[in-house]
Every structure is written in C-alpha cells, then in structure tokens.
Amino acid sequence: MSETTARRRTLILAICCMSLLIVSLDNTILNVALPSLQKDFHASVSGLQWTIDAYLLVIASLLLLSGSTADRIGRKRVFQTGLVLFTAGSLLCSLAPGLGWLIAFRMVQAVGGSMLNPVAMSIITNTFSEPRERARAIGVWGGVVGISMAAGPIVGGALVQSVGWRSIFWINLPIGLAALLLTARFVPESRAPRARRVDPVGQLLVIALLGTLTYGIIEGSGAGWTSPEIVGCFTVAALAAAGLAAYEKRRTDPLIDTRFFRSVPFSGATVIAVCSFAALGGFLFLNTLYLQNERGLSALDAGLYMLPMAAMALVFAPLSGRLVGTRGPRLSLVLAGVTMTASGVLFAALDAQSSNALLFTSYVLFGIGFGLVNAPITNTAVSGMPRAQAGVAAAVASTSRQVGQSLGVAVLGAALAAGLHDGAWWIIAGCGAAVLVLGTLTTGRWAKATAARTAELLITPEAEDNRMAVKV
Asked: How much is the pTM?
C-alpha cells in the first residue's frame, strides 16, 4: 500500500470507528428497550433472547466469509455493501409490526454488520503498519465500544421514554449514510495479494454449529433439556463442530485456517474474547431486566444507573490501547480478569443488588474490566500474522466476540428462566476468572514463540514476495 499521510490515516480510522459505533450502539440501545418490547409484543424471556441472539448469530456465522471475501474482492467494496445493508435493516426494524418481523429485520442488519467490523479492522491493520501506531489505533477503536456503552443506555433510554422503542433504530440512519459517503471519498481500495476461494461447506457447518447450539440453550428450559428436540440440537452442533474441524484441515483455502490456532496468543485471544463477551452479554441482559422489571425504573433511569459501567469502559479502553502498545497485552488482560471476576462475585456472593453502593461498585469494576480487555484481544489476534491474512484473522477475533455475546445471553437467560439467579452471576465471575488465567498463560515468551512460528507457516512463497503489496 502506498504510504498515506497521518491526517488521511486518522480520517480512515474515524470512518472505520463510525461503523463500529452503529453496530455496538445497536446492542446497548436495544438492551434498554427490552422491557418495552416485552410489553408491546407480549414477548417471553426466550423471545427477548432471540431479539438479541438472532442478530449476533448471523453476524458470527458470516464474519469469516465477509473477512475472506473482503480480502478477495476488495475491502472497501464489502465495507460499503455492509453499510448499505445495515442502514436499510435499521429502517426496517423501526417499522416491524411484530416480534417475528423484528427478529427477521435484525438478521438483515446482521448481514450488513458482518461486513463492517472485521473489514474495518482489516482496513485499519493495513493502514497502520507500524506496530505501536497500530496498537494506539486499536485502542481508539476499542474506545468506541466504550462510547457506545456510555451513550447507548442514555440515548436509548431517552428515546424509548419520549418517542418509543422504534426510534432507537433511527439513530443508525444518519451515521450509516455519513460513513457511506466518507468511505466512497477517502478510504482506498485494498485486497490481499492472493485471492482466497469460497468455502460453502465450511460456511454451512459454521451456521449449523452456532444455530443449533444457541437454539438448544435458549429453548432448553422451555422444551425440556432431555426432549428429542433439544438433544437433537446439541447432537447436530457436536457433529457440525467435528465435521468442521476435519473438513477445514483438508482445504487449501479454508474458511477457518486451523493453523492460526497453533499460535498460543491467537488461541488465547479467541477464548478470552468468547469469555469476556459472554460476560458482557449476560451482564447487560440481566441488569436491564432487573432495573426496569424489578426496581421499576424507567428506561432512561435504567440507562443512567448503568452509566458508571459505561463510563469506566470509555476511560479504560484507550488506556488499554496505550498499555498494550508499551507493555504488551498481559497486564491489561490480568487487570481485566481481576475486575470482571470481582464484579461477578459481588453479585453472586454479596448480593450487590441489595444496595446502591454495592451495585455501583460492581458496575464500575465490570466497566474497568471490559474497557481493558478489548484492545489486547484485537491486537493479539492480528499482530504477528501476515498482512495478507489480516481480514481472516480479524474476522476470527470478531466472530469470537459475537459467539461469546450470543452464548452469554443464551446461557444466562436460560439460568434466569430456570430461577438460578445466583448461578447466573457465578457464571459471569467464572468468565472473568478465565480471562485472568488465560491472559497470564498465553502472553509469555513461549507463547510469543509459537506466534512467530505460526506466522512463518502462514506465509506462502507467493505471499512472501507480495506481502507488503496491496492491489488498488
């Protein structure tokens, strides 16, 4: 890629962050609106879970395809397509006549969303080639998640309370259109030096795995965990996982290159992403319903209650980016694990919901942990990988986030439906502990050596000759 000026790189980063903002904002705003949806559509807990998880599952299922497609046919082209679909899906969501239609239109949004975040991260990776500068850029990127967490509950609460839940989707329209126009003007086209072939079998196996696993978890408490329907779902999920692992090893251009996972930092970042975002998905789901249904707060007041968590995420996300750039990922991950675990324990063991002091302390701790965890996940996933593989590597990291969040909503929602309230919070504490342990074990010298060996393995002779080149 020809060198771009610092101002141009900053503008490209801002455009990519706009796409992350609307995708992240959509989730935090929707959580505040769940009780309103429950009343308007007479929805069950599982119906609310599907409103969130249908979106997350479609994104998770298509992220790898979108990342590899962008590497093949052009990142700018796929990014623009994603912006069009996401914006159109948002408009359709605001017009949904029933819960089923809303879930369907959320899936349209998700198809577009799958083309945004991993492709934007690939654009950032190829724009910011210097490692320290890239780490700072990723810190800014992570800070946008904090902004969405801070703005989402308040903006969403105000819109739901004053205009109605349909208005929460309107905010995506001007941002999406602005990002589309700016992308056309300022973002350069780029591709990987060698095109990757489509993997339809692998794609179908991913959809079967994620869809049946999540369906089984969400519907298990209602249908019965030993019912043929639920047992069948888990059986299909297990077979799809085994088939995917076996099939992808034999492909020249797999949808999921299993060689990535020979890198201990990459594998660790993948599992950490699942655990941390499972904690986030469950945390938001449980607290939103609690604050409005149990405490009787309005949507706006519920958003304001959760502001301490969002504010901490906003503050600590860019700090984590700088910390990763200067000290590496371990310290951020360890601190994130400690604070997220402490937050879950406050709820599970000390009944944090019994007093505002404990409640706000747990919110602050969780916000700090989530703010710290995002930058090291992303940086570890893409650092050390050949730049030609940037789209796929970023897509795996993004997929892990979406899978984690969907599983968090599914598992903790199922625990809530089964009356296991304390158990749900212990699950969140366990996710934080996993971040702590994996963050410590997967960031040492031995782990870094496996990453270097994996990078060498992934560079083919053709890619070696052209790895710094990008077709424009």
From this structure: 0.81
